[in-house]
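For practice. Supply one:
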Amino acid sequence: MIKRKKDKFSEMLMDIAQNIKDSAEFLGSFELQNVSDLKEFANVLKAYESKGDKYVHTVITELNKAFITPIEREDILQLAMSMDDVLDGIDSFAALMEIHSITTFDEYVAEFVKNIQGCAEEILITINLLSEKKLLQISEHAIKIKEYESHCDTLYRRALKQLFATCKDPIKVIQYKEIYETLEEIADYCQTVANNLESVIMKNA
């Protein structure tokens, strides 16, 4: 059978989702060893974020020109913008690491990153299913994204409790609290993507 070509909006959303996955993979794989590595770390993740901005701009431009869209144009825009928020969050995290000259992931940051990578993987799967119009299969993956977000909520509370109980340096407390908050926000942005996908399912399945 001839495989039907994806419409241009599906291709655009896939580009954004793939960029999120690539960004999350780099986030977890780059080995920080010293302060000088932080610049490269932040610059590469900024490049992913900038690429994402260009993808979203293209989506907006094409939506303004399109007469017919595969799903409601507002849903396409919301999906694109919510995925872009994930990239913005990852970029913000990398910037904070550089600003605070933190060169190692503690156990909590490492676990946050693993959950964010899980979200990124599921987002790519869901957007691919959307492009193939397999709407009813999206739900199980949207649920997985929400489970990762729930894990991050629990992790955030554990991390703060440990931080306040053991760290005596007020500057370090402020720095790590900000980092944990940013990571938890990234998970929240992933959940928003899942919520937007569920809204699409309700309208179109």
Summary: DSSP finds six helices and no strands in the chain. The helical segments are 8-29, 35-65, 73-99, 107-131, 138-166, 170-204. The CA atoms of residues 38 and 97 lie 7 Å apart. The two ends are 24 Å apart (CA to CA).
